[in-house]
Amino acid sequence: MDTKKIPTPLPIGKSFFDRVIEDGAYYVDKTLFIKDLLDKGAQVTLCTRPRRFGKTLNQTMLKCFFENTAPFGGKNTRALFNGFKIEKAGEQYLAHQGKYPVIFLSFKEAEADNFDITCYSFKNTIADEFRRHSYVKEKIAQTADLTKFEELASGKGDISIYRDSLRFLSGCLENYHGTKTVILIDEYDVPLQRSWLCGYYKEMIDFMRPLLGTALKDCPHLQFAVITGCLRIFKESIFTGLNNLDVISILSDRYDEYFGFTQDEVDAMLKYYGMESKTQIVRDWYDGYLFGKTEVYNPWSSIQVVDKWEENIDRFPAPYWSNTSGNDIVRELVNRADYKTKTELEILMAGEAIEKQICEDITYDEIFNSSNNLWNFLFFTGYLKKIGDGRQDEDDKLILNLSIPNREVRYIYVTKIDEWFKERIQEKNFDTFFNAILTGDIETFRDELEALLGASISFMDNAENFYHGFMAGILSRLDGYIVKSNRESGRGRSDLVMYAVNKREKAVIFELKPAKKFQDLPAACEEALKQIEDNNYAAYWADEGYTDANIIKYGIAFCGKNCEIKSNK
Fold first, then answer.
1. Which of 53, 269, 310, 471 is such that its CA lies 20 to 30 A from the CA of 101?
2. pLDDT classification of 294: cutoffs 50, 70, 90
């Protein structure tokens, strides 16, 4: 009989703390987050982290720990924490367990393409929480308040009645329990990002400002609140006048180990599943984030890859995070990138670092005002990491060295961002470019090609295969012509050939050469053209019936975004 121990299942698809623990899934113990929150004693804490870094798991952990479950049948949430670090932290912390009414809201689904549908989602989310706490109605004395409660619980009515709903519900809960309320809001900035992209940003701000402001600012019914999201949004005045807000971003040292996996935690997980031999692979692909002074791994991807190795230990690692994070706003910013920004993206893709001013107050409404907003967004949402502690410039602004965190994120740059730039190029009109090629107008051909190179992005500008692929992609756009790579002819293979099916039209041969320096372009160009002649690359096309007058030969030399072209015509 096989007596091999079956390991604890990984929490694939599970982001709610009680579900993870009750299902017996593997859990990386982050329960001391509770202790540190209580020690700090902030009334409102905003924790910003990239997507899929454990925000929802931590928020549901707080709900399970603090919520008074008596009205829900007295569910034994204490048992969920058996054996975890918070249980050993001391009775002064356990005294808070199960003591408070809790309002828990997640805004991660409130991201429709128009305001009305988003409002519908908001109303349902808030109404669900009112219905969950419907037991408080028995202690609501005022008829008007009872009517308001039932209307909010119905999910109907105008959106305006929901603007003070959280403050109203927290008051009802305090009246029932005799204890102030804990408010937990997960992914608070998701509707802001979507509304900004879809054109109803002002309406969203006008709704969320009173919703959060009345619940968190000078609210007499609030014990404390914890809010999570990707970005710290201040200038939009969502938290206007909120002087009790403790902001914990990825630059903060506090709570730095509670979002993401530390090295010790990854080592322990790999050891538990017998995968110590994979340590370096996991580090290369999913490590590299620096939160405060703690280096952390992407927890989502680390769990996903271990799960895949459970099926097949030889499976290659993959970019699991790339399809879970919101790329829409990154794409919009990249679409507006100027030449300097493209150059810096190329530096990053080549594995080097760039130095940038970092400001924590990201403002969607002003996001296109400065290219710095691109780097801020990429940094705070996990696409870049800081190297070292940085410095302050003469204006006391924070300057950081930034680089791509790991191979997983680099994959996003090399595939997604490169693809977006290629799509931009494909939208251009190529008539002038193709006409110059077919008529032998070298000067126009060069100018148009350099313009296309300037609009592209590559971290391998001096590699011949980049230019080869770049040219092949563009030439394939010409209707009526076929493009072939490395076609055998004469005594070798030309880099590219473009020919018309109608042999009375042109056949064009291209030989490409990279040059190390700009001043080397003419010589490299001559060498490319000489290679066409010496190896008689035109032989095949002459045999096929193309006349000498209709065979055009181009030697093209490249250096970065510059090129030089010579022809036999």
1. 53
2. very high
Please report whether residue 20 resides in a domain: no
Cβ–Cβ < 8 Å for 8, 26: yes
d(CA 545, CA 442): 25
In 3D space, the residue among 384, 361, 386, 375 whose CA is nearest the CA of residue 333 turns out to be 375
Residues 269 and 254: their CA atoms lie apart, in Å, by 24
State pLDDT tens for residues 358-397. 887 766 766 777 777 788 888 998 999 999 888 988 888 8
Say if CB 481 and CB 507 are below 8 A apart: no
**N-to-C CA span, the chain:** 81
Question: Residue 118 and residue 192: Cα distance in Å, rounded?
Answer: 10
Helix (H) or strand (E) holding 435: helix 431-439
Q: Supply the pLDDT for residue 542.
A: 83
What pLDDT, on the 0 to 100 scale, is given for residue 434? 94
Residue at 256: amino acid letter: D
Helices within 139-262 (DSSP H only): 143-154, 165-177, 190-198, 201-216
Q: Is 495 exposed, middle or buried (0-12, 13-18, 19+ CB in 10 A)?
A: buried
Which residue range is the domain that position 461 belongs to? 428-567
Same domain, 234 and 269: no
Q: pTM to 2 decimals? A: 0.85
Same domain, 123 and 195: yes
Tokens for 155? 């999910």
Three-class SS state of 118: helix
Same domain, 419 and 457: no
Residues 146 and 227 in one domain: yes
Is the pLDDT at 260 greater than 70? The verdict is: yes
Helix (H, G, I), strand (E, B) or coil at 483: strand
pLDDT tens digits for range 161-200: 999 999 999 999 999 999 999 999 999 988 988 888 888 9
